[in-house]
C-alpha cells in the first residue's frame, strides 16, 4: 500500500509531510526548502511555473503570476471578499460562467480549483521525488472556517492533481494532532493559527490518545496578506506624498512593492526599523523615480493592530462556545508564519495570560498533522483518534426568512439531528426544504447548500402536518438531508455536499488539459 | 421545561392558530428550546409568547429557561430502529469480536444515556469524558476507514452517533439534571417497537394510514408518554365543554377561543372543528353587530372616514348585510367616493330589493354621478314598492325639475 502524504495547502506557502520510518517527516523541495510558495505563473514563452520558480519571476511578469488564490477559492465573483482584492491584484480576475471567478493569465482563464490543483501536484512531485515511489493518497488541510463549497473546491483540486483525497481536515486540528501525538497527558490547548490569508482558533482537548476538538472559530479572510496589503498601502501613500506619483495602476511596481513589503514585514519581526529600497520604481517626464523609505516596527504594529484585535475577538467567541475560560487552557500553540510577528505573540500572551508553547514549527506543523491523520486512518493498529467538529451550523430556512439550526457548529461528526416542522398555510401540499450553512438568524445571510421539495402532503389546517427534517453528517463531512411527512411517510432527501464551483464535466476537461503539462515536470 | 399552570384556562387570551399550536405543545416534557423550533413561529416570537404567558400565569417553569443549544432534547432525536437482529459475518474486514460488540451495543441503544456510556447517573464530567473517549476508540467510523464493513458500516455509524449524543447531553449540566430527574420520575422507556420491518423491507410504497395508526406511530416516534396524550385529549374535551357552555350564554368570542385551543390540543377529533365552524359563524355575527353599533356611533359623531372603515369591516363579517352596505354607500357618497358608493348601494339593492331606503340611496348616488335616467328607473322601482313614500316622490320631482342637466354639471 502506498503511503499517505499530508499537504498543507497554504495561502502563501504550502508544505508536504509523510510518515517515514515511523516518524512524520517534512519533505524539502528540490531547492532544499521545506515550504513552497503557493504561486503559479505562465512565463512569456508559455511555460507553466510553480513555487519558487514562479515567485522568482513574479516581478518581471506580475500580470501573469498568481499568488494567494486560496483567498478566492469557492467564492462568487460578486462577493465582497473578491471585490476587495481585485483592485490591488496585479493579475486579472474575471467573472466565470457559474458566477464563480476566473483568473486570466497567459491568455487563458484558470479556475481557482485548477490553480490549487497545480500547487497540489507540485507538492505531490516533491513527495514522490523524496520517496522515490508514486504517491496517490493524501490528506489535505483547509482553514477550519472554510465552508462546504470551499472544501469541495479543494477536494476537486485534489482530484485534478491526480490525488485521492482521503480526507479534508482543519488546519488547527491537524496542528493539535501533531502537537498531541505521543504525549500521554490530559490537557486542553488553544491552537492560534494566523496564516497568510486565514485565521483559525481551535480549542482542543487531549487525553487517552484522543484528540477532541471542543470548538473552533475564525475568519477565512484575515491573515498575513492583510498586513502586507496595509503596508503596501502605507508605502504607496508615503510615496505619493513625497513624489506626487500614484503607483496603483502599475502592475510591475505593485508586485515589486508587495515583495518588498512582505520582506520588510518579516524583517521587522527581528529589527526595530527596516528600509524599503526600490530604485527605478517609476519613470515620468522628470526622469526615473526611486522609492526609499524607512519603516518602523511601530508603524507596522499600528497598521496591524485592528487585525490582531479581530483575531482576539474570535478567540473569546471560541472559548465561549467551548464553555471554558482562559484559566482552563493549559497551553497555547501558535501556528502559521504570521505568528512570528512579535506583536502577535505579545497580544496572544497577554490575552491568554501565558506564554505560547514553543515546541512546534509554525510553518510545518499543519502538514505534519495531516500526514499523521493519513496514517491514523489507513493503518490497522494505532491508538490515536481524532474527534473533529463541524465548524458551521447547518439548518433550514423557515417560512418567514429565519434560519432554524439543526446541527449546531462545533458538533462532533459524524452526527445526526432531526426536528419536526409544520406547514404555515391551510391545505399546504408541499414544503420547500432549503438547506443552509452559517451562523446568522436570517436565512438570507447564510450560504445555500441545496434545496428540494417535499410534496404530496395531505390537505390539513396549517400547523397540523408534522414534517420531520433530519440532517446527517458522516465522518467524511458529507451532508445529507431528508424530509419526511409523518402522516404519509412520504420522504424526500438529498446529499448536499458535492457542490464546488466546478461540475464533474469541467473537472474532467481540466484534467485532460493538464495531462499535457504533466510530462515536462517529471524531470 | 415549561408546563401549564393550574387554572390557566381562565386566563387564556385570544390566540392565533400558531399560538394555539404552541400552547398545545406545552406539556411539561418538551423543553423551551424545542418549543422554539416546532411551532412554525420565529424563535423570538415563541420566546415572546412564552414569556408573556409566564407573566400572565398561564405557564410555570421548573429551573431556569433552557438555552438554545438544548434543542437536542432526547425526545426529538429520532432513533433509527435497529434493523433485524443482525449476525456476525466473518468475511468482513472487521474483527468478529468487534462485530459482536456492535450487535450487543445496538440492543442497548434505547437505554438511558448514562447506561449507554456505562457510567453512574451521577458521574462527574471527567468520568463521562473518559468513558466517551474509550467508546469512541472502538466505535468511531474512522477506526475502520475504507474497510469492507457491509451492513456494519451503518451499524457503527448509528452506535457512534448515539454515544456522541449521550456524551453531549450528559456533559451539559442543564440536560444532565433533567435526565437525572426524569430517571427518578419515570421508569426506563419501553423497548422500541418492531417498526423497522415496514421501513427496511421491499421497495418503498406509498401507504395510507388510518388516524389510529398515525397516532400510534407518532406516539412511538416521539415517545409522547401515553399519559400526556390522554391529558391533552382530556383537556381538549374540557375546553370543548367550556366552549359549548359559553355558546348557551351567547359568549361567542370566549367560545371560539376555547374551541380553538381544544383543536390545538387534539387535532384529530373532527367534532371540535365542526363546533368551531358553528361558533365562528355566531362569533362573527356578534362581532359584526358590535361593529355596526360602533360604526353608527362614529357616523353620528361626524367621523365619516372611520365609520366607513367600520362598516366595511361589518361587511367583511356579514357579507349579506344589506343595511351595512346601504350605510357604507351613504357615507361614501358623503365622502365623494361615488364609485365605491354605487358599488355598495347596488349590492344593498340586490341583497334587499324590497327596502325602499336602499333604492333611494342608489338613486342619490346615480344622480350625483349625473346618471339621471338610471336614477329615475331606480326611483320608479321604489315607488312601485311604496307609492306613498314622500322621500321617493320628492327625489323624483327633483329629477324632473332639471331636465336639461347632463353629466358632470354639478355635484
Helix-strand blueprint:
The complex is a heterodimer of chains A (523) and B (411).
Chain A: E1 5-8, E2 13-20, E3 23-26, E4 36-37, E5 40-42, E6 48-50, H1 52-56, E7 65-66, H2 80-86, E8 92-95, E9 101-105, E10 108-111, H3 112-131, E11 137-142, H4 148-160, E12 164-170, H5 171-180, E13 187-194, E14 199-207, E15 210-219, H6 224-243, H7 251-270, E16 273-284, E17 287-296, H8 297-322, E18 331-335, H9 342-352, H10 365-378, E19 385-387, E20 389-390, E21 394-397, E22 403-407, E23 411-412, E24 415-421, E25 431-437, E26 447-454, E27 467-473, E28 479-485, E29 491-495, H11 504-518
Parallel strand pairs in A: 1-11, 11-12, 13-18, 15-19
Antiparallel strand pairs in A: 1-2, 2-3, 2-4, 5-6, 5-7, 8-9, 9-10, 13-14, 14-15, 16-17, 20-23, 21-22, 21-25, 24-27, 25-26, 27-28, 28-29
Helix pairs in contact in A: 3-4, 5-10, 6-7, 6-8, 8-9
Chain B: E1 2-4, H1 8-11, H2 17-24, H3 32-38, H4 43-56, E2 59-61, H5 96-106, H6 113-117, H7 125-139, H8 152-171, H9 173-185, H10 197-200, H11 211-222, H12 226-248, H13 252-265, H14 270-300, H15 304-317, H16 322-335, H17 338-351, H18 356-369, H19 372-385, H20 390-401
Antiparallel strand pairs in B: 1-2
Amino acid at each position: 500500500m502506498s503511503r499517505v502524504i499530508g499537504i498543507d495547502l497554504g495561502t502563501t506557502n504550502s508544505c508536504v509531510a509523510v510518515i517515514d520510518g515511523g516518524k512524520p517527516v517534512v519533505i524539502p523541495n528540490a531547492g532544499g526548502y521545506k515550504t513552497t510558495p503557493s504561486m503559479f505563473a505562465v512565463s512569456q514563452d508559455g511555460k507553466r511555473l510553480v513555487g519558487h520558480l514562479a515567485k522568482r519571476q513574479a516581478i518581471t511578469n506580475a500580470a501573469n503570476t498568481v499568488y494567494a488564490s486560496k483567498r478566492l477559492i469557492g467564492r462568487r465573483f460578486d462577493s465582497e471578499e473578491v471585490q476587495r482584492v481585485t483592485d490591488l491584484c496585479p493579475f486579472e480576475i474575471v467573472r466565470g460562467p457559474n458566477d464563480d471567478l476566473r483568473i486570466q493569465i497567459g491568455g487563458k482563464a484558470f479556475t481557482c480549483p485548477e490553480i490549487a490543483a497545480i500547487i497540489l501536484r507540485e507538492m505531490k512531485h516533491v513527495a514522490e521525488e523524496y520517496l522515490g515511489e508514486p504517491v496517490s493518497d493524501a490528506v489535505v488541510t483547509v482553514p477550519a472556517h472554510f465552508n462546504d463549497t470551499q472544501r469541495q473546491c479543494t477536494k476537486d483540486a485534489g482530484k485534478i492533481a491526480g490525488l485521492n483525497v482521503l480526507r479534508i481536515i482543519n488546519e488547527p486540528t491537524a496542528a493539535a494532532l501533531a502537537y498531541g501525538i505521543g504525549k500521554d497527558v490530559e490537557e486542553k490547548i488553544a491552537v492560534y493559527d494566523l496564516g497568510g490569508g486565514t485565521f483559525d482558533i481551535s480549542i482542543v482537548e487531549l487525553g487517552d490518545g484522543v484528540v477532541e476538538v471542543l470548538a473552533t472559530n475564525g475568519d477565512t479572510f484575515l491573515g498575513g496578506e492583510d498586513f502586507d496589503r496595509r503596508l503596501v498601502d502605507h508605502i504607496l501613500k508615503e510615496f505619493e506624498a513625497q513624489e506626487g506619483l500614484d503607483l496603483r495602476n502599475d502592475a510591475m511596481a505593485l508586485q515589486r512593492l508587495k515583495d518588498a513589503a512582505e520582506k520588510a514585514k518579516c524583517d521587522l519581526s527581528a529589527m526595530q526599523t527596516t528600509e524599503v529600497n526600490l530604485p527605478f520604481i517609476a519613470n515620468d517626464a522628470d526622469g526615473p523615480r526611486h522609492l526609499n523609505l524607512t519603516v518602523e516596527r511601530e508603524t507596522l504594529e499600528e497598521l496591524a493592530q485592528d487585525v490582531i484585535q479581530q483575531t482576539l475577538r474570535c478567540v473569546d467567541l471560541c472559548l465561549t462556545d467551548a464553555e471554558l475560560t482562559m484559566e482552563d487552557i493549559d497551553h497555547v500553540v501558535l501556528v502559521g508564519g504570521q505568528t512570528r510577528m512579535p506583536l502577535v505573540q505579545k497580544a496572544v500572551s497577554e490575552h491568554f495570560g501565558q506564554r505560547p508553547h514553543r515546541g512546534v514549527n509554525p510553518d510545518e506543523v499543519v502538514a505534519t498533522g495531516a500526514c499523521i491523520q493519513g496514517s491514523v486512518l489507513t493503518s490497522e493498529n494505532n491508538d490515536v483518534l481524532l474527534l473533529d467538529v463541524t465548524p458551521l451550523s447547518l439548518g433550514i430556512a423557515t417560512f418567514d426568512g429565519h434560519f432554524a439550526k439543526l446541527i449546531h457548529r462545533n458538533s462532533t461528526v459524524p452526527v445526526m439531528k432531526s426536528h419536526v416542522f409544520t406547514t404555515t398555510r391551510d391545505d399546504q401540499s408541499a414544503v420547500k426544504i432549503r438547506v443552509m450553512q452559517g451562523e446568522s438568524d436570517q436565512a438570507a445571510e447564510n450560504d445555500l447548500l441545496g434545496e428540494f421539495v417535499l410534496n404530496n402532503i395531505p390537505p390539513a389546517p396549517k400547523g397540523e402536518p408534522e414534517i420531520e427534517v433530519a440532517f446527517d453528517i458522516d465522518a467524511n463531512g458529507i451532508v445529507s438531508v431528508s424530509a419526511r411527512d409523518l402522516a404519509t411517510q412520504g420522504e424526500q432527501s438529498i446529499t448536499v455536499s458535492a457542490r464546488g464551483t466546478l461540475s464533474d464535466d469541467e473537472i474532467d476537461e481540466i484534467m485532460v488539459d493538464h495531462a499535457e503539462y504533466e510530462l515536462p515536470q517529471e524531470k | 421545561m415549561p408546563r401549564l399552570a393550574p387554572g390557566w384556562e381562565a386566563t387564556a387570551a385570544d390566540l392565533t392558530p400558531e399560538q394555539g399550536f404552541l400552547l398545545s405543545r406545552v406539556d411539561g416534557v418538551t423543553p423551551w428550546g424545542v418549543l422554539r423550533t416546532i411551532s412554525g413561529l420565529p424563535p423570538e416570537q415563541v420566546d415572546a409568547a412564552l414569556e408573556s404567558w409566564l407573566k400572565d400565569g398561564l405557564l410555570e417553569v421548573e429551573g431556569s429557561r433552557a438555552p438554545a443549544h438544548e434543542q437536542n432534547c432526547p425526545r426529538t432525536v429520532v432513533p433509527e430502529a435497529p434493523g433485524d437482529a443482525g449476525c456476525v459475518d466473518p468475511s468482513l474486514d472487521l474483527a468478529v469480536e468487534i462485530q459482536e460488540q456492535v450487535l450487543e451495543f445496538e440492543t442497548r441503544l434505547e437505554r438511558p444515556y448514562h447506561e449507554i456510556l456505562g457510567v453512574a447517573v451521577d458521574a462527574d464530567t471527567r468520568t463521562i469524558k473518559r468513558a466517551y473517549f474509550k467508546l469512541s476508540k472502538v466505535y468511531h467510523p474512522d477506526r475502520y476507514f475504507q474497510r469492507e464493513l457491509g451492513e456494519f458500516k451503518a451499524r457503527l455509524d448509528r452506535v457512534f452517533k448515539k454515544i456522541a449524543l449521550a456524551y453531549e447531553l450528559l456533559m451539559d449540566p442543564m440536560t444532565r439534571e433533567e435526565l437525572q430527574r426524569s430517571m427518578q420520575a419515570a421508569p426506563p422507556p419501553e423497548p422500541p417497537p418492531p417498526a423497522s420491518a415496514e421501513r427496511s423491507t421491499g421497495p418503498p410504497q406509498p401507504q395510507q394510514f388510518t388516524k389510529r395508526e398515525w397516532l400510534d406511530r407518532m406516539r412511538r416516534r416521539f415517545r409522547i408518554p401515553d399519559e400526556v396524550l390522554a391529558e391533552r385529549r382530556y383537556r381538549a374535551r374540557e375546553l370543548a365543554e367550556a366552549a359549548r357552555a359559553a355558546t348557551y350564554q351567547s359568549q361567542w368570542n370566549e367560545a371560539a377561543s376555547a374551541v380553538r385551543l381544544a383543536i390545538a390540543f387534539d387535532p384529530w377529533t373532527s367534532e371540535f372543528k365542526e363546533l368551531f365552524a358553528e361558533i365562528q359563524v355566531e362569533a362573527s355575527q356578534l362581532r359584526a353587530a358590535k361593529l355596526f353599533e360602533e360604526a353608527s356611533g362614529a357616523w353620528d359623531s361626524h367621523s365619516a372616514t372611520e365609520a366607513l372603515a367600520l362598516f366595511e369591516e361589518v361587511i367583511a363579517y356579514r357579507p349579506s348585510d344589506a343595511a351595512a352596505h346601504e350605510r357604507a354607500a351613504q357615507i361614501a357618497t358623503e365622502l365623494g367616493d361615488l364609485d365605491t358608493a354605487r358599488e355598495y348601494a347596488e349590492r344593498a339593492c340586490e341583497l334587499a330589493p324590497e327596502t325602499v331606503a336602499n333604492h333611494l340611496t342608489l338613486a342619490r348616488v346615480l344622480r350625483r354621478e349625473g346618471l339621471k335616467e338610471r336614477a329615475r328607473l331606480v326611483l320608479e322601482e321604489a315607488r312601485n314598492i311604496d307609492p306613498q313614500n314622500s322621500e321617493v316622490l320628492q327625489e323624483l320631482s327633483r329629477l324632473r325639475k332639471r331636465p336639461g342637466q347632463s353629466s358632470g354639471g354639478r355635484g
